[in-house]
Recover the amino acids of this structure.
């Protein structure tokens, strides 16, 4: 069973494909989490992934970020086939993930968190023999990374736990943006935030995209999805149900596709960002 | 700008608190006895805390990762018995005997570390088990007899050198050197940061790609080696290999770490604080004896200080998550 | 005829079983429960008990608590031994009061219970007590120290066990009494503190802690000339501190126990005198009394002192003592 892809006029047909997955399958005993799921991420876009609980949304993201090894199917990054055996492999390939729990050490400073696991050492003997950290450089680079994304925090020496929820999210996003080479994946970035901080983070995500990094965004929050996304990937029953165009489809129709009340075949072509014909 | 919260007001206290407490105690005892502040007496206190002081370095590392080591005292006793037995009965050269003792304690550290990282058992339970095993092995190997007539070179660290008019024990300088070394490693190297990170948020640390099991195993192995050094210092101080040594040293080391401001939840604290913590206990013990106060009060005061230390730590973090 | 064939073997089997049971029930079973497994004092006690049991054709079961003060462990051991057929229980009690209900239950079943080394509270909760008098042990070394001081003003340091421990209190107060100072009696748990005692510190019976305690006491009063220690490891630590301060010659250092290492220390001059106690004797007497009870039904009763001897290298007039050589023959531990 293959699929033929017909690019829709609503999206740029010439945008190159950064990351792709075909026919991903993952089973846990009798439960099938991914049932031949496909995925496609284009350069310079924010792709939102939505889906009901059990739709295979989080399993898909785990496969893309290396936290899950699919039983079948393949993944391509910039046209090359990739096999991720762990999140580290995905990171090395240039894919950074901002987890829902943020993965920051609260007692440590912003600068320390930004470089956690990727610490810079001093040049020469001090760095090689004594393995001393280059704290000045890490501090300076932290300032630069945060400024590049317009995140307004006064001191990089503040402990992360003294920051507000939105600011912490900013630190986690800045870390991914600083080290990602190809893709940034964000899992529910606005879930724990209030209105003002959410808007701050939405702006932040746009700035990441504008700096040339495509973003995969998982979210339950429809208004945020519609505010941010260039395209919307709908996961359902372990597969890709449709890819929608947020500019033309209504929020309620999008939710209907997500819950299965409407099927992709029933939608108008301009509502789709990708139409799929199964052969 | 809001008014500083309780947390912000107390934060500097959290770091300096132990040192202030130590200085306050010293000032108090100086008023109570004119013998307290003499060079000889202070040098004595340093010698008396030297063994627990080194144990506390290893204990600090482990507590920083969110664990605890109840076996440190017994492992130290085992190391002492092994090295003295090797030097006397087996007749091995002293450096080899010492290496043998340290090897045994390091091995115990590795066993603790493997049980924590591979079998994924809680450190409290693991070290509760290994403390009993170490004790039993020590008793069996030594036949419950203290080993005496140690070659003088083995107890060399118990000898003194002159600083001004005061005799200072070599072992004390070794303890201070080890503290500085570990302090440097924790502050200035990536591995040191990883120790803090693992204790502060192990899941986050794993997700950033740090090999968390390797950090933990490393901490337990290094602690084991440090316990071996403590064994040597204990042998140097008492002049014997005592199978009944170290019975309360595990709690003494943990007390020193807690009094020094390190959080039992992991991820926060200074290793130098543990030195201050050990000194606080030593100063109180010495000072109260000089004052002729019953040692029951020393126990009471230690308990009160521990509660104060933990409370100050909690408040200065404002109960931060 | 057939019946005989069938009954014959059965009868023989029944007879054999009965005879075996009778034979088995004639082997006396005695249980020995010590405070801990590892203290050399108790190790020696167990050895002595086993020797006497073997000599009398009795079976000795042994058990202990996990540490000093582990009452529950001793109760469990007692119950298991009685279930295994012990008719006599010998016990060095960890907790004098807490063990009493279990002992009463045992005696209600007809088991003979003898306390060794230290009494229960109340003392008559057991059938008998074979013990060493810790107060008397303290008195002996107190008398010795007084005589050795030869009239000089006393400046005494006591290195005790830990607050509230009965054995620690008895030895300490006995020492003071023997020295001629006012002191609490043998049943008191508080440590007496006349003015001649210039320093009191706790050693927990541990050599390293004894050293620390002595160092601090010397800082307080460098003119200390008599040191009482709770046991010989503490004395060894105290001696190290005294020697480091250059004071080992002028200070009278006394202790209690009479273990072989301690007696050797008396011989080398590190300890001036020690009061030797006899765990072996206690156990031997206990087993012998137990065997007698099982065989003849004769119950031992009351308190029997197993004796204490002052061991010193140089005897003093007016103070009865034995030489180091004698001490080495009778000591417990590695000779």
């Amino acid at each position: 069973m293959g699929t033929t892809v017909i690019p829709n006029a609503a999206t740029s047909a010439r945008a190159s494909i950064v990351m792709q997955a075909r026919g991903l399958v993952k089973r846990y005993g009798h439960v099938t989490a991914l049932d031949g799921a496909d995925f496609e991420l284009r350069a310079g876009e924010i792709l939102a992934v939505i889906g009901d609980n059990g739709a295979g949304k989080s399993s898909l993201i785990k496969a893309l970020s290396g936290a899950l090894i699919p039983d079948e199917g393949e993944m391509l990054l910039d046209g090359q086939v990739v096999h991720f055996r762990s999140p580290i492999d995905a990171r090395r390939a240039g894919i950074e993930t901002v987890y829902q729990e943020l993965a920051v050490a609260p007692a440590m400073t912003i600068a320390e968190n930004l470089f956690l696991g990727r610490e810079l050492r001093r040049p020469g003997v001090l760095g090689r023999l004594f393995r001393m950290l280059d704290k000045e450089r890490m501090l300076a680079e932290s300032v630069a990374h945060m400024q590049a994304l317009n995140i307004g925090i006064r001191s990089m020496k503040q402990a992360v736990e003294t920051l507000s929820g939105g600011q912490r999210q900013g630190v986690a996003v800045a870390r991914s943006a600083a080290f990602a080479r190809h893709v940034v994946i964000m899992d529910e970035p606005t879930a724990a935030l209030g209105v003002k901080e959410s808007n701050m983070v939405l702006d932040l995500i746009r700035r990441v995209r504008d700096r040339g990094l495509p973003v995969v965004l998982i979210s339950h929050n429809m208004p945020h999805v519609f505010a941010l996304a260039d395209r919307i990937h709908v996961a359902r029953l372990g597969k890709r149900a449709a890819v929608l165009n947020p500019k033309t489809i209504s929020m309620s129709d999008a939710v209907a596709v997500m819950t299965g009340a409407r099927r992709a075949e029933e939608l108008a072509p301009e509502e789709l960002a990708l139409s799929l014909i199964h052969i | 700008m809001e008014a500083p919260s309780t947390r912000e007001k107390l934060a500097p206290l959290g770091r300096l608190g132990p040192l202030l407490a130590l200085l306050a105690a010293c000032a108090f005892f100086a008023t109570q006895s004119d013998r307290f502040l003499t060079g000889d007496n202070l040098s004595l206190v340093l010698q008396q805390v030297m063994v627990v002081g080194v144990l506390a370095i290893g204990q600090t590392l482990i507590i920083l990762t969110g664990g605890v080591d109840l076996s440190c005292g017994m492992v130290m006793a085992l190391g002492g018995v092994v090295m003295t037995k090797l030097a006397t009965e087996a007749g091995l050269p002293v450096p080899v005997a010492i290496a043998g003792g340290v090897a045994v304690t390091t091995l115990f550290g590795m066993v603790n570390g493997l049980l924590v990282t591979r079998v994924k058992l809680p450190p409290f339970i693991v070290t509760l088990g290994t403390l009993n095993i170490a004790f039993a092995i020590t008793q069996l190997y030594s036949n419950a007899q203290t080993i005496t007539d140690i070659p003088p070179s083995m107890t060399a660290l118990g000898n003194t050198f002159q600083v001004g008019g005061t005799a200072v024990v070599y072992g004390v300088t070794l303890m201070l050197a080890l503290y500085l070394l570990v302090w440097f490693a924790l502050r200035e190297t990536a591995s040191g940061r990883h120790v803090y990170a693992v204790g502060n948020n192990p899941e986050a640390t794993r997700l950033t790609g740090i090999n968390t099991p390797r950090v933990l195993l490393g901490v337990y192995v290094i602690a084991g080696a440090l316990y071996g050094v403590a064994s040597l210092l204990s042998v140097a101080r008492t002049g014997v290999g005592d199978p009944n040594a170290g019975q309360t040293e595990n709690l003494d080391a943990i007390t020193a770490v807690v009094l020094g401001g390190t959080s039992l939840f992991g991820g926060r604290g200074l290793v130098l604080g543990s030195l201050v913590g050990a000194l606080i206990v030593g100063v109180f013990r010495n000072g109260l004896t000089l004052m002729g106060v019953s040692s029951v009060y020393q126990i009471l005061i230690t308990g009160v200080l521990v509660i104060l230390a933990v409370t100050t730590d909690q408040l200065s973090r404002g109960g931060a998550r | 005829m057939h019946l005989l064939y069938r009954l014959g073997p059965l009868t023989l089997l029944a007879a054999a079983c009965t005879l075996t049971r009778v034979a088995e029930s004639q082997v006396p079973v005695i249980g020995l429960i010590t405070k801990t497994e590892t203290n050399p004092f108790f190790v020696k006690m167990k050895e002595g008990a086993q020797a006497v049991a073997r000599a009398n054709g009795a079976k000795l079961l042994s058990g202990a608590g996990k540490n000093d003060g582990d009452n529950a462990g001793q109760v469990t051991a007692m119950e298991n031994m009685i279930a295994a057929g012990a008719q006599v229980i010998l016990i060095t009690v960890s907790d004098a009061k807490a063990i009493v209900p279990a002992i009463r239950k045992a005696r209600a079943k007809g088991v003979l219970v003898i306390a060794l080394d230290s009494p229960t509270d109340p003392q008559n909760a057991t059938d008998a007590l074979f013990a060493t008098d810790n107060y008397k042990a303290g008195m002996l070394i107190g008398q010795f120290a007084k005589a050795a001081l030869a009239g000089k003003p006393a400046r005494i340091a006591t290195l005790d066990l830990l607050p509230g421990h009965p054995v620690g209190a008895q030895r300490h107060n006995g020492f003071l009494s023997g020295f001629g100072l006012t002191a609490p009696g043998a049943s008191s748990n508080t440590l007496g503190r006349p003015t001649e005692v210039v320093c009191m510190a706790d050693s927990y019976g541990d050599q390293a802690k004894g050293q620390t305690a002595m160092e601090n006491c010397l800082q307080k009063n460098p003119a200390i000339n008599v040191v009482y220690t709770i046991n010989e490891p503490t004395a060894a630590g105290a001696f190290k501190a005294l020697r480091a301060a250059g004071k080992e010659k002028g200070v009278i250092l006394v202790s209690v126990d009479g273990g072989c290492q301690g007696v050797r220390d008396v011989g080398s001059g590190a300890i001036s005198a020690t009061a030797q106690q006899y765990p072996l004797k206690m156990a031997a007497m206990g087993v012998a009394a137990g065997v007698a009870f099982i065989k003849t039904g004769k119950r031992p009763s009351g308190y029997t002192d197993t004796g204490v001897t002052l061991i010193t290298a140089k005897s003093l007039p007016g103070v009865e003592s034995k030489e180091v050589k004698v001490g080495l023959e009778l000591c417990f531990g590695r000779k």
About this structure: The two ends of chain A are 6 Å apart (CA to CA).
